[in-house]
Design a protein that fits this description.
By secondary structure, the chain is α/β, with parallel strands linked by helices. It has 20 helices and nine strands. The strands form two sheets. The chain has a seven-stranded mixed sheet, sandwiched between helices. The chain has a two-stranded parallel sheet with strand order 6-9. Strand 2, helix 8 and strand 3 form a beta-alpha-beta unit. The longest helix has about 60 residues.
């Protein structure tokens, strides 16, 4: 009975893909009037959402720049204070005779006078100074889960080494190295990394995920679930207070700055209900971006921009990507990560699970610190393009969340009633949520909103490619053939020729399609400026190592990237939902030269 109830939700994704393709030739032939109205509504809604994303992206970019510059100012002030203290100590050693004969030394110049360019930014500086206390030594324990399968040891060492360079790593960081038992030779790799970092962290825990657990789907989600359960249990055995633990899920190539950790702590401390938050940063690709084809580079840049625009949401209905954090309390509350085939997109799925399992209380808190990732890279141009295509197919398998979201939104009341009087916290954090949001109109609106966002994230890629590129040209060819020999529709049955109303609709549709790419161009132009700032001010790259005006030629590859890495793989992933095959566990290949590591 359950499978029959779930089946209609499973049909949403494959039917969206199939209908989008079939409408291209059949719409003008069978239902031209309805098809025109549909195209007008679809393109208008699409244009509106894309313009909305541009504004949200601009908000995210502004917050990223503000966060980075406040941090750099804080670091500069600390360095100046340390230098001033050293100078005072050195002057004190010169003796009283030297001090009496020397002219009086002026007092240190205040920060605002030393940096005249910042003198007019009083409000921003005061705000930054008020929050500096939150950047002091932490009482949180940060457990970083590093899932991996057949990844180069040098890449893992570099990823973990970047964490070891953080100031509180030895006292507040725990590494959970999540290995896969199915990987040949994982033991010496884990042992080598354990020995290398044995004195760098509070704890270094290695977990090994078995490959034969019934009902599990192999991938990052099942690996993270095993590592989180076993790593958290081991930390508790070692006396770590679960209320202090913040879990951070990363990729094997995630370069996590110290600023990200501090911003998570600050957001956690300031939040009203921090144990209902997932902390999501933007993703960023600049570690090897110049070593991959331009189409691969542009795909990841566009992906990064979409993640950034998604984060600026006033209701906290957003989705993490790749790297994110949450408290151990929340992870335990929802039963950790799911491991079945419907949870392959573990980052978005975990946010959805937390939202529904807490009756809509869980929210996503943006952390405006980019996490630097590595582009897929192999030997050879075509090989690299194919590797990115394989990665895209794996990413779009996350379309399983469409069915999960619709199913949960429709059936959440059934299990929410059983949790009406439940306690949502542990230990001293227990508090009763008697006025559970599941019964309020706000919760129903949030359920509707999260369904819309999931449908937008997964249905736009599979429909927009076909309709944006082919709908208008194919309709033009069918209704207005270049020669009478290829005429299919009788002019008397052509609504555009027989009705002024539909002729006007047709002209409006054609005009709208001209403007559809402009929001993307606006987003990418904003991104170009952001990329340079992040590279130079956060990652301290030289000007020659960042993007320049020459990279404008990358945009020529956008149509190739859109079709090869978005439309086609998303269509394949949607149609596969009809028969749910068991995919082979394939990781994206990445080159890594340890000599280039930071």
């Amino acid at each position: 009975m359950t499978s029959l109830l779930n089946y209609p939700f499973e049909l949403v994704a494959p039917m969206a893909a199939i209908v989008s393709i079939l409408l291209l030739p059949l719409g003008p032939l069978l239902i031209p009037r309805f098809y025109l109205i549909f195209l007008l509504i679809y393109f208008t809604c699409f244009l509106y959402t894309q313009i909305n994303h541009v504004f949200k992206f601009w908000i995210t970019v502004s917050n990223i720049k503000k966060t980075i510059r406040n941090w750099n100012l804080n670091e500069r002030n600390n360095d100046n204070n340390n230098n001033n203290n050293n100078n005072i100590n050195n002057d004190g050693e010169k003796g009283s005779s030297a001090a009496s004969s020397a002219p009086a030394s002026p007092s240190p110049t205040p920060t605002r006078e030393r940096y005249p360019s910042l003198a007019d930014e009083d409000e921003r500086l005061d705000e930054m100074e008020a929050s500096l206390k939150l950047y002091e030594d932490s009482h949180f324990i940060h457990a970083f889960i590093v899932p991996n399968y057949a990844e180069p040891e040098a890449l893992l060492r570099d990823t973990i080494k970047r964490l070891a360079n953080h100031r509180n790593a030895q006292t507040n960081y725990v590494i959970i190295l999540a290995m896969e038992a199915s990987e040949t030779g994982f033991e010496p790799k884990a042992e080598s990394l354990t020995n290398y970092f044995k004195d760098s962290f509070l704890h270094f825990i290695v977990t090994v995920h078995p490959s034969d657990i019934p009902g599990e789907s192999r991938g990052k989600g099942s690996n993270v679930a095993w590592a989180a359960r076993n790593g958290c249990a081991e930390m508790i055995q070692r006396g770590v207070d679960r209320r202090r633990v913040i879990l951070t899920v990363s990729d094997s190539d995630s370069s996590i700055p110290e600023l990200y950790v501090k911003e998570v702590e600050k957001t956690f401390t300031q939040a009203e209900d921090p144990y209902f938050l997932l902390f999501a940063p933007p993703i960023f690709f600049s570690r090897n971006s110049f070593d991959v084809p331009a189409a691969v580079r542009m795909t990841d840049i566009t992906w990064s921009a979409m993640v950034m625009s998604n984060l600026s949401n006033s209701r906290g209905i957003a989705f993490p990507c790749s790297t994110y954090s949450l408290s151990m309390v929340l992870a335990e509350r929802v039963g950790y990560w799911d491991t079945d085939a419907d949870s392959v997109g573990e980052d978005m799925h975990m946010m959805l699970k937390c939202f529904f399992k807490t009756d809509g209380l869980a929210r996503c808190a943006p952390i405006f610190v980019p996490i630097n990732l590595t582009n897929v890279q192999t030997n050879g141009y075509l090989s690299n393009m194919y590797a990115r295509f394989v990665q895209a197919k794996r990413h779009y398998n996350g379309v399983a969340d469409v069915s999960y979201t619709l199913r949960s939104a429709a059936g959440v009341q059934q299990w929410a009633d059983g949790n009406k009087n439940s306690k949502y916290m542990v230990g001293s954090l227990l508090h009763d949520k008697k006025s559970s949001m599941y019964a309020s109109p706000t919760f129903w609106f949030d359920k509707f909103l999260i369904c819309v966002k999931v449908l937008e994230a997964h249905m736009i890629p599979v429909t927009s490619g076909w309709l944006m590129f082919a709908a208008v040209p194919l309709m033009q060819f069918i209704l207005f053939p270049p020669h009478s020999m290829v005429a299919i529709v009788d002019p008397a049955d052509n609504p555009i020729l027989t009705s002024d109303f539909y002729a006007t609709l047709w002209n409006i549709v054609k005009i709208i399609t001209v403007f559809l790419p402009f929001p993307l161009f606006g987003t990418l132009s904003i991104y170009e400026h952001l990329h340079r700032i992040v590279d130079r001010e956060l990652y301290r790259k030289a000007k020659s190592e960042s993007r320049s005006w020459k990279n404008v030629f990358d945009y020529i590859t956008l149509p190739i990237a859109a079709w090869m890495f978005m439309t086609i793989p998303s269509t394949i992933a949607c149609i596969k939902r009809l028969y749910k095959p068991t995919d082979q566990y394939i990781v994206a290949e990445k080159f890594f030269d340890e000599d280039d590591s930071a």
